[in-house]
Amino acid sequence: MSEQTRIEQMRRHETDHEVPWSLPIVVRKSKTGLSRHIDVLEATARAVVTFLDDPRSQPGGEWSNAVAYWRDGAIRKVVRRGDGKKLEDARALGSVTVSFGGTEDYAPAEASVFPPGPVSPLPPQLSKLQVGGTEFPDEGETSVPAAEAVVTIELSPLVTLTTGKAAAQVAHGAQLAFERMTPEQRDHWREADFSLRVVTPSKADWRTTGRPVSVIDAGFTEVDGPTETVRAWW
Asked: If you count Cβ atoms within 10 Å of the first and of the last residue's Cβ in the chain, which end, N or C, has fewer?
């Protein structure tokens, strides 16, 4: 992919809707059962693809018009955190939740994806949940063996992102992979429960290895200007 093509992909926001839309994502952050950074990323990516594959998001489904309208603009995603009753109240709006990972010391990560809508106003059940404070402990790389992952998502080793920002970026990569697959490839991924792994390559590998999916962040938050954050391959 040429640099010009990457920049043009990034510039989709220039033709975005007058009132921007986003895909709301809420990750569980509990004081009593904290999850690992890597598990949050992988749970979020799986949850977004599971949401897009859900019959309610497909043509004729109750969420399909909202998904199509959102997809026609920038694929903006906003990650919030929640727990307890506030999280359950939000999920009652209708969502897709994926739980993934966990170790002896850390709880499985939970990510809930909601139908897209205007960035403002949000339903009060979502607006009560915080965007800030989405940092989770980074305790090493994925435990998903390469042989079990249908899709590999690479995070740039050249930038440092909070868990919430990184989760949104890897979810972009997973979504684009899902959309660009052939029907047969998508069926295979579905049969594998959308198995994926998130890795961070070396700087040398990142600079020399191209992938079929490249995500360019516009630079509104955390990164300075147009920045390639994620790649994906399968």
From this structure: N
Residue tagged 């992952």 (tokens): 149
Predicted confidence band of residue 15 (pLDDT cuts 50, 70, 90): low
Distance CA 37, CA 82 (A): 15
pLDDT digits (tens, 9 = 90+) for 84-115: 999 999 999 999 999 999 999 999 999 999 99
Contact partners, residue 231, CB within 8 Å, separation at least 6: 153, 154, 156, 173, 210, 211, 213, 214, 215
Cβ atoms of residues 172 and 44 within 8 Å: no
